[in-house]
């Protein structure tokens, strides 16, 4: 078969074009670090990259949700501890006030302290986290207790201003921590500030009153001002009942914190595993790519050199 000048020219130009395409592909891989830069590079691999990228995004979001849940639940737990410490102080004052040797002025001084604890308990009940009330269930935009009661003595906080009569929202605010896994991060003041159900009959509170921290502090304030040491002593068991319930509620929050920590660890491990899979599918072997790139550049230079010699006075001379 006779090889014409035209056939020779076409073959040389085709080889040069193929070399340029290979060189371009290797340059893209070296620049991006990825062996898949277009769907045509690996159609099946592209589908895997999309799937793994989406999975990584979900796992990262779940991990962040778990971190946020821990932060919120830790805040709720610390607030509960604050309330328990306050009520424990009230219990100590009740024991002091139950002492028959206290003078009327001493009893009134103790009552004034209890009044301040009452105000602070209302403030704790209206605690917010990121602008949302933590003791009102799903109704996070509404204060669960009358804010004005934090500035009133217990005997002044009556009617709509009486926090002991308020029933807070009991709905749960959930955070998604995985596919089908949710965790409640809210609390209900009615559940937390009440007396333990099994001990409600021994609270020492007057008949018909709500068995919670607010009512007990109010009754303690009144009994101290009246010098009624017997009633002051009777209220101690009611305070103990509320403290028991608070401890149980805080223990429940502690278990939720542990679950959030476990899910955070799990999502982190899953994210690392999927990231490795994505790297195996998508990332280029840079050592191999650079070696091939240098080889392709050498081949291209050789092709231009050969073409320039075989086809003088052509575009190959210019390219060379």
Provide structural commentary.
It is a single chain. The chain has 320 residues and is mainly α. It has eight helices and four strands, in the order αααββββααααα. It has helices at 5-32, 43-97, 104-125, 189-192, 213-226, 229-282, 286-310, 315-319, and strands at 128-129, 132-133, 174-178, 181-184. The strands form two sheets. Strands 1-2 form a two-stranded antiparallel ribbon. Helix 1 (5-32) runs antiparallel to helix 7 (286-310), helix 2 (43-97) runs antiparallel to helix 3 (104-125) and helix 3 packs antiparallel against helix 5 (213-226). The longest helix is centred in the first third of the chain and has 55 residues, at 43-97. It is rod-shaped. It starts with a helix and ends with a helix.
